[in-house]
Write a structure and sequence with these properties.
- This protein is mostly helical and 286 residues long.
- The protein has one domain.
- It has a two-stranded antiparallel ribbon.
- Helix 1 crosses helix 10, helix 2 runs antiparallel to helix 8 and helix 4 crosses helix 10.
- The longest helix has 37 residues.
- The two termini are 33 Å apart.
- 33% of the residues are buried.
Length: 286
C-alpha cells in the first residue's frame, strides 16, 4: 500500500511540474514542440514513412481487410474476458465516485493528451488548431487547476485529440490490415505504427517512458502507464451502457467493434466528428 501511495504521489508531483512549467513557456511552446517533433522524425518516423510509402499501393488495396481474422477473433475473446474480469468492475467502481472527481480525472488525462495533439496539428499544417490546442492546454493547466477543470471548452477553444496514426491518414496513407492486439484492442497497420511513433513526439512520453528531461521535469514508466490506465477506465466507464447495448444487440460483436473502430478513425482523420452528432458512440471519439 505504501508503495502504491508513493507511485501515486510521484505521478501527481511529476505531472504537476510538467503542467505548471509548460504554460509559462507558451511564447516558445509551439517552436519547442515543433523542434522535438522534427528531431524525433529524423531518427524514427522518416524511415517508417519511407517503408509505408513503398507499401502504400498494396495497403490501400487491402484497407480495412483482415490480416489474420481467426487470430484476431481469439484475441478479441481474450480481451472480452479481461474486460469482464478487470476493466469493467473497475469502471463500475469508478462510476460510483462523485461526479466532480470523475469529471476532473477525465479532464486531467485529456489535458495531458493535448501535449501529443499539438505537434500532430503542426505536422498536419493545422496551425489554427495547434494554436487552439495550445491555448486550451495553457488555460486548463492554470485556470483549470492543472487540467482538472476545463474552462477552455467554455471559452470555445476546440481540442480534438490527434495522434500519429491520424497524421499518417491525413497524409493519405491507407489504414492497411485490420487486426486486434491483446489488451490494447482494435488497430490497423497504420495505427499500430502510429502508436509506437507517438512515444517519440509526445512530451509526456519523453519525460516518462523515454526517461528524458523536459524543462527539468522527468518521470517514470509508472507515471505514463498510470495516465494511460486512467484514460482507459474513464472511457470504459463513459461507455458502459453503449457497450452493453452493443453486446446484446449485435449478431457479430467482433464485426460490430471493427466497424465502429474504422468509422471512428475515419471521422477523426477527416475532422468530421462533432459531439453534437446524433451518435451513441460520441465518447468513442473524444
Amino acid at each position: 500500500m505504501q508503495n502504491i501511495n508513493f507511485h501515486t504521489n510521484n505521478l501527481i508531483i511529476n505531472s504537476t511540474k510538467l503542467l505548471i512549467v509548460l504554460p509559462f513557456c507558451t511564447g516558445k511552446i509551439l517552436n519547442i514542440l515543433y523542434i522535438v517533433t522534427i528531431m524525433s522524425l529524423k531518427k524514427t518516423i522518416i524511415l517508417i514513412l519511407a517503408s509505408v510509402f513503398l507499401m502504400s499501393t498494396s495497403l490501400k488495396a487491402q484497407s480495412e481487410k483482415e490480416c489474420f481474422e481467426k487470430v484476431s477473433r481469439n484475441i478479441f475473446k481474450f480481451n472480452q474476458g479481461f474486460d469482464r474480469a478487470v476493466l469493467k468492475p473497475i469502471a463500475k467502481g469508478y462510476n460510483k465516485l462523485p461526479e466532480p472527481i470523475k469529471k476532473g480525472t477525465g479532464n486531467f488525462t485529456s489535458n495531458i493528451g493535448t501535449l501529443l495533439t499539438v505537434p500532430n496539428h503542426v505536422l498536419q499544417g493545422q496551425w489554427k488548431l495547434a494554436g487552439e490546442s495550445s491555448a486550451s492546454f495553457l488555460i486548463n493547466s492554470t485556470i483549470g487547476i492543472l487540467g482538472f477543470g476545463n474552462p477552455a471548452a467554455k471559452l470555445g477553444f476546440k481540442n480534438q485529440q490527434e495522434d500519429i496514426g491520424q497524421t499518417l491518414g491525413a497524409y493519405g496513407f491507407g489504414a492497411g490490415c485490420y487486426f486486434v492486439m491483446p489488451i490494447l484492442g482494435p488497430t490497423t497497420f497504420r495505427d499500430s505504427i502510429g502508436m509506437v511513433a507517438d512515444t517519440f513526439i509526445d512530451p509526456f512520453a519523453h519525460v516518462t517512458i523515454r526517461e528524458h528531461e523536459l524543462f527539468s521535469v522527468s518521470g517514470s514508466n509508472i507515471d505514463y502507464f498510470s495516465v494511460k490506465g486512467a484514460t482507459a477506465v474513464d472511457f470504459r466507464a463513459d461507455n458502459m451502457t453503449n457497450i452493453e447495448s452493443l453486446e446484446k444487440n449485435s449478431i457479430d460483436i467482433y464485426a460490430a467493434f471493427k466497424s465502429l473502430y474504422l468509422q471512428s478513425t475515419e471521422k477523426k482523420i477527416n475532422n468530421t466528428f462533432s459531439l453534437e452528432d446524433d451518435d451513441d458512440w460520441a465518447d468513442f471519439n473524444k
